[in-house]
């Protein structure tokens, strides 16, 4: 199929793609406005070796995964609930947090999501503070040259809106709708592929010239003009 054939398909059925994309974008936008607002606060913990040593640096990177596992526990969650005076249990709190490591930056990231931005900030900040206190107390008993300095990157923690994001959702819905519309067009073209709808299609498919065509129902056939001789017959 050449470029002209694709352009012809877009000319005839392009409105389907546009219509489905617009409907999907409007639907996604509408869903965004009825979603419950959720805010996310992020606390970043630095875990840097006390001295610039390659071996100690690699050990610190390996320890980050262990640190993540120690933070993401029910024991830690209960301590956070007690210190921050939160009205929830450990299962509820753990469902609100995500703890991850960034080894290349020697960073542990604590993300907390909640409908109340202040609660999200309290969860992230309290969990980070407790972990830092624990590690500082432990490393104070170790040789200074082998310590890993653990501290908050920034004591100021914000909780911007995490979801919904109407414009982002609308754009994603529009793209998805356009893809669905394109699939619909392809399906229609596939179903119509065996139908020879025009003389040009017949000639292109069979390789033979079209000598005549049956007019659509209701259209009168063209008759000879009055007074003009019809070959081999009367006027």
**DSSP E strands, number:** 5
| CATH third-level topology of the largest domain | Bacterial polysaccharide co-polymerase-like
Q: Which structural category do the helix and sheet elements fall into?
A: alpha+beta
What general form does the structure show?
elongated
- Listing every helix as H and every strand as E from the N terminus to the C terminus, the arrangement reads HEHHHEEHEEHH
Mean pLDDT: 82
- Rg is 35 Å
Largest sheet: 5 strands, antiparallel
Portion in strands:
5-15%
The helical percent reads 40-55%
Segments where pLDDT lies below 50 for 5+ residues? 221-235
Task: Count up the domains.
Answer: 2
CATH architecture of the largest domain: 2-Layer Sandwich
Distance N terminus to C terminus?
49 Å
Number of helices, where a helix is a run of at least 4 consecutive DSSP H or I residues: 7
Short overview:
This protein is of the alpha+beta class and 235 residues long.
Walk me through the structure.
The structure is a single chain. The protein has 235 residues and is an alpha+beta fold. 53% of the residues lie in helices and 14% in strands. The protein has two domains: 3-34 and 166-191, no CATH class; 38-163, 2-Layer Sandwich (Bacterial polysaccharide co-polymerase-like). The protein has helices at residues 3-34, 54-71, 74-84, 90-96, 117-139, 166-191, 199-206; strands at 38-49, 97-102, 107-114, 148-152, 161-163. A hairpin with a 4-residue loop joins strand 2 and strand 3. Helix 1 (3-34) runs antiparallel to helix 6 (166-191) and helix 3 (74-84) packs across helix 4 (90-96).
């Amino acid at each position: 199929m050449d470029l002209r054939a694709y352009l012809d398909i877009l000319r005839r059925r392009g409105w389907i793609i546009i219509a489905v994309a617009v409907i999907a974008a409007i639907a996604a936008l509408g869903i965004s406005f009825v979603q419950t607002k959720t805010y996310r606060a992020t606390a970043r913990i630095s875990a840097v070796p006390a001295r610039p040593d390659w071996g100690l640096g690699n050990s610190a990177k390996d320890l980050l995964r262990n640190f993540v596992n120690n933070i993401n526990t029910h024991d830690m969650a209960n301590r956070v609930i007690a210190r921050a005076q939160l009205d929830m249990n450990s299962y509820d709190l753990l469902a609100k947090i995500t703890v991850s490591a960034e080894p290349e930056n020697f960073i542990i990231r604590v993300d907390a999501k909640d409908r109340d931005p202040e609660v999200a900030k309290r969860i992230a900040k309290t969990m980070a503070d407790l972990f830092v206190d624990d590690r500082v107390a432990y490393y104070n008993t170790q040789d200074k040259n082998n310590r890993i300095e653990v501290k908050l990157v920034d004591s100021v923690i914000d909780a911007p809106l995490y979801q919904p994001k109407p414009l982002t959702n609308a754009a994603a819905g529009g793209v998805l709708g356009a893809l669905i519309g394109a699939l619909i067009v392809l399906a229609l073209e596939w179903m119509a592929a065996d139908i020879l709808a025009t003389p040009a299609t017949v000639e292109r498919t069979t390789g033979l010239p079209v000598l005549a065509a049956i007019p659509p129902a209701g259209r009168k056939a063209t008759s000879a003009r009055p007074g003009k001789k019809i070959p081999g017959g009367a006027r």
